[in-house]
Design a protein that fits this description.
Helix content is 33%, strand content 26%. It has 443 residues and is α+β, with helices and mostly antiparallel strands. An 8-stranded mixed β-sheet has the order 6-10-11-18-17-16-13-12, sandwiched between helices. A 5-stranded mixed barrel has the order 1-2-3-5-4. A 3-stranded antiparallel β-sheet has the order 7-9-8, with no helix packed on it. Strand 2 and strand 3 form a beta hairpin. It starts with 14 loop residues before the first strand and ends in a 20-residue tail after the last helix. Bound molecules: 4-amino-1,4-dioxobutan-2-aminium adenosine-5'-monophosphate and magnesium ion (MG). The site of 4-amino-1,4-dioxobutan-2-aminium adenosine-5'-monophosphate has 23 residues, from strand 11, strand 17, strand 18 and helix 13.
């Protein structure tokens, strides 16, 4: 029977067989330390020169980094051992596949080199943990929505129209000279689903042809998008607040120790993510930023912080604004002119939309975008035209306003931005298995 390192504590004192790869090896002619990984964890395996046949010791000494091996031995509790508080006293090692000169050594490599070798880099301890945290976040998101009565309804990826503006559409050939676009967001289809199921969500890849080289942008990213009928902006903010607090709690429950030891994440910042999260009107947020700008002594930053009512936030605005708070905030009521066509107008103030963004602290900025949708047919049609979109492409969407239209709202959480913030990473490219950015399509 093969055991997994993640469960090794249950086998203390027993003989086990582990199938994995040599993560690292060091030692002398007296003792060899084999650091083994099997995908579920890492463990130190020890062999003294006199612990077994000479041939076994000689074979272990020859093992190179990332050679695949089956290791048998006895599990010992050892508080000083690296990784997991246990180590393995080796009784036998079988080489499965040799690894010659593994390109990623223990020395520091540049980001470009590591991304070129992403298919191998995934094996490293940090990258391994990041993707496990990503999986925990995705599970937490889905469990939360499933338990809250949202039905999973998958949105299509090929779409006939834009959702988030025509400037970031990836176009592809469809049949009979037609064009199709890769989905920027599953939202419009969730609005149809919400009218059918009351509460729905999609989770899938989304695409933006943005030529931006920032630490927050990918051209392919994964988004979870809940949508609910009869929900207004306040309900939407209640939902995203409860949802985000839950997600962070799940990650802390499962990964607190590793986040701190492997990624040096400051856990206190995550432990503060409790309700209530502040809700700040855009009008007030702009005043706060203007105030920061007027007091700012760094001339470069001061320039970047200049803002007038009506403008969208850039990342310096988000960063400095969120520094005033110790947990995520929700900024709502953005100007209609900077938001998508489907945003509902503020009653009595059409220049303001019932939109909301959740901004993460510590300089991470926007992780969620959402809001209440325009449910009035005429208003929506005029917005479609004002955004120079073709109403023909939206006929099906307009039907949702023709047949029993109701107030409704939802939001989209970018998984990669959430992973980057929760793990404390400085670039989203490490939060997705294989990043797609302006200058990267391989591996
Ligand atoms: O704010 P966005 O564009 O909102 C929407 O797409 C809505 N239709 C969602 C909805 O209401 N159902 O994107 C939502 C989130 C952002 O807050 C961000 O976390 C992420 O998606 N995101 C990106 N992540 C990585 N790279 C990009 N280029 C991203 N663009 C948006
Ligand atoms: Mg947004």
């Amino acid at each position: 029977m093969t055991h997994r390192i993640s469960q090794i504590a249950e086998y203390t004192g027993q003989e086990v067989e582990l199938k994995g790869w040599v993560f690292n090896r060091r030692g002398s002619n007296k003792v060899q330390f084999l650091h083994l990984r099997d995908g579920s964890g890492f463990i130190q395996c020890v062999l003294g020169a006199n612990d077994g046949p000479d041939e076994l010791f000689a074979n272990v000494k020859k093992l190179s980094q990332e050679s695949s091996v089956v290791v048998r031995g006895t599990v010992k509790a050892e508080a000083r051992a690296p990784y997991c508080g246990h180590e393995l006293s080796i009784t036998d090692v079988e080489l499965v596949g040799d690894a010659k000169e593994y390109p990623i050594s223990k020395k520091a490599h540049g980001d470009g080199f590591l991304m070129d070798n992403r298919h191998l880099w995934l094996r490293s301890r940090k990258q391994n943990l990041i993707l496990r945290v990503r999986a925990t976040i995705i599970k937490a998101v889905r469990d939360y929505l499933d338990d809250a009565g949202f039905l999973l309804v998958d949105s299509p990826i090929f779409t006939p129209n834009a959702c988030e503006g025509t400037s970031t559409l990836f176009e592809t050939d469809w049949f009979d000279d037609r064009k199709a676009y890769l989905s920027q967001s599953g939202q419009l289809y969730q609005e149809a689903a919400a009218m059918a199921f009351g509460k729905s969500y999609c989770f899938g890849p989304t695409f933006r042809a943005e030529k931006s080289k920032t630490r927050r942008h990918l051209n392919e990213f994964w988004m979870v998008e809940p949508e609910a009928a009869y929900m207004d902006l306040d309900g939407d903010m209640d939902l995203m607040e409860d949802f985000m607090v839950h997600v962070v709690e799940c990650v802390l429950e499962k990964h607190a120790e590793e986040l701190e030891s492997v990624l040096e994440r400051d856990l206190s910042a995550l432990k503060r993510v409790k309700k209530p999260l502040q809700r700040i009107h855009y009008d007030d947020a702009v005043k706060m930023i203007q105030d920061l700008e007027s007091k700012c002594e760094d001339p470069d930053l001061k320039e970047l912080l200049k803002i007038e009512w009506g403008a969208d936030f850039g990342s310096p605005h988000e960063t400095e604004l969120t520094k005033l708070f110790d947990r995520p905030i929700m900024v709502y009521g953005f100007p209609s002119q900077i938001k998508a066509f489907y945003m509902k107008k503020w009653p009595g103030r059409p220049e303001v939309s019932k939109s909301v963004d959740m901004l993460a602290p510590e300089g991470y900025g926007e992780i969620i975008g959402g809001g209440e949708r325009e449910e009035n047919l005429e208003m929506l049609l005029s917005e479609i035209k004002r955004h120079e979109l073709d109403p023909k492409d939206f006929e099906w969407y307009l039907d949702l306003r023709r047949y029993g239209s109701v107030p409704h709202a939802g939001f989209g959480l970018g998984i990669e931005r959430a992973v980057a913030w929760i793990c404390g990473l400085n670039h989203v490219r490490e939060t997705i298995p294989f990043a797609r950015t302006l200058d990267r399509l391989t591996p």
